[in-house]
Amino acid sequence: MRVRAYRFRAYTSKTTARVLKTQLEVACKLYNALLHAEQEEYEKNKRTMSMNELRQLALDLRKQNPEFQVLHSQVAQQVADRFYHARQRFFEGLANKPKKKKPHQYLSLVYPQSGWKLSNTREVGQGKNKKRKARLRLSKIGFFTLVMHRELPLEQVSQVCVKLNPSGRIHVIFLVEEPEAEEEQQSSKEPKNAVGVDLGITRLATLSDGRFLENPKPLERSLERIRTIQRMLSRKKFLSKNWLKTKRRLAKRHEHVKDFRRDLFFKLGALLAQEYDLLVLEDLDTEGLIQKGETRTRRMRLYDSSFSELRRCLEWVFQKQGKTVLAVSAYNSSRECFLCGRINQNLSLEDRVFHCPYCGFTLDRDLNASLVLLKRAGWVPPGVPAELRPLPPLPSLGLGRHGVAMKQEAPSVRAG
């Protein structure tokens, strides 16, 4: 079985939103109480509590303290599970030692088995504004209206998580257990066509078929406004009302950048998955590239390009459709000649055209690299594209005439 998350935007009344914030603060206090009890247990008996002991302690604290009784019983147990897993990651060397949480850092509640009910699924609006909505009831909190942008296998839901983002937006995530058998059978089929993708800063993606996608650089375009809000935040008193208000504005700005980037990545993946059965990517060491960045601007642009997230999005889209993603070595992919396979050691970052000193082969640097990646995967393209061309101006892809973001997408990133 594989676990898949279905995330939907949720809307609710101001009263229910206040109740949710109150319960998040109470859950944070319960988490800190469990942390304190764990520290006392270790000081006295030199042992740590098991998951069952932590769950029982959470239920006992809930019975003894009226403040904790606003939480659903299974939500209280899940707080114990969260602390237990945080402690286990520390023991395994995967995370820092669990420490006391602040109320503005605890942002989600989980209903593992019961305490929730989804009903009144309906279609509203007409034409382009047509949407599917549903009504979700969470025990001890209230009702939420969900925008159901895709089908949800309700009978396979194992957990429901309600999350309050730092920007104030609410999302509900359904964790669904799905079998992997069908996708494994689909992915076992022999792919008929393949494409190699070279990632870069100037051009975010260069395809082996000659098409390319310019890097919209959403963070760099909104960096001036982010810095202004950050300076305003630094002048506020910590955890004051004005500090929280400015913190929310800053979180909204970062969420705009994140949403723009992920939307572009998923739509690019959808376009490639429609046309190709095999996607060949370069196995980049993103952290190493950032550390080797010579200038601060280059390091920032590497962060902004988010190659790791792009790879995850493309892999998710292809695997969802039962298609294959193959990562090959990126070592010397830009310096290797696609035609003869020899290395041009004199090629620098400033050289945007690849010229082989041995066979005389000349081609765009990024296009040559994408063809080399495809060749390393065992595929030989039918021909070498004569010139580069931008991706088509598909409105659904959010791209403009030259492969950059269209104007209607920009306000979410650039608006002041």
UniProtKB/TrEMBL annotation:
<dbReference type="InterPro" id="IPR001959">
    <property type="entry name" value="Transposase"/>
</dbReference>
<keyword id="KW-0479">Metal-binding</keyword>
<feature type="domain" description="Transposase putative helix-turn-helix">
    <location>
        <begin position="1"/>
        <end position="46"/>
    </location>
</feature>
<dbReference type="InterPro" id="IPR021027">
    <property type="entry name" value="Transposase_put_HTH"/>
</dbReference>
<feature type="domain" description="Probable transposase IS891/IS1136/IS1341">
    <location>
        <begin position="183"/>
        <end position="290"/>
    </location>
</feature>
<keyword id="KW-0238">DNA-binding</keyword>
<dbReference type="InterPro" id="IPR010095">
    <property type="entry name" value="Cas12f1-like_TNB"/>
</dbReference>
<keyword id="KW-0233">DNA recombination</keyword>
<dbReference type="Pfam" id="PF01385">
    <property type="entry name" value="OrfB_IS605"/>
</dbReference>
<dbReference type="Pfam" id="PF07282">
    <property type="entry name" value="Cas12f1-like_TNB"/>
</dbReference>
<dbReference type="InterPro" id="IPR051399">
    <property type="entry name" value="RNA-guided_DNA_endo/Transpos"/>
</dbReference>
<keyword id="KW-0815">Transposition</keyword>
<dbReference type="Pfam" id="PF12323">
    <property type="entry name" value="HTH_OrfB_IS605"/>
</dbReference>
<keyword id="KW-0862">Zinc</keyword>
<protein>
    <recommendedName>
        <fullName>Transposase</fullName>
    </recommendedName>
</protein>
<comment type="similarity">
    <text>In the C-terminal section; belongs to the transposase 35 family.</text>
</comment>
<feature type="domain" description="Cas12f1-like TNB">
    <location>
        <begin position="307"/>
        <end position="372"/>
    </location>
</feature>
<comment type="similarity">
    <text>In the N-terminal section; belongs to the transposase 2 family.</text>
</comment>
<dbReference type="GO" id="GO:0006310">
    <property type="term" value="P:DNA recombination"/>
</dbReference>
<dbReference type="GO" id="GO:0032196">
    <property type="term" value="P:transposition"/>
</dbReference>
<dbReference type="GO" id="GO:0003677">
    <property type="term" value="F:DNA binding"/>
</dbReference>
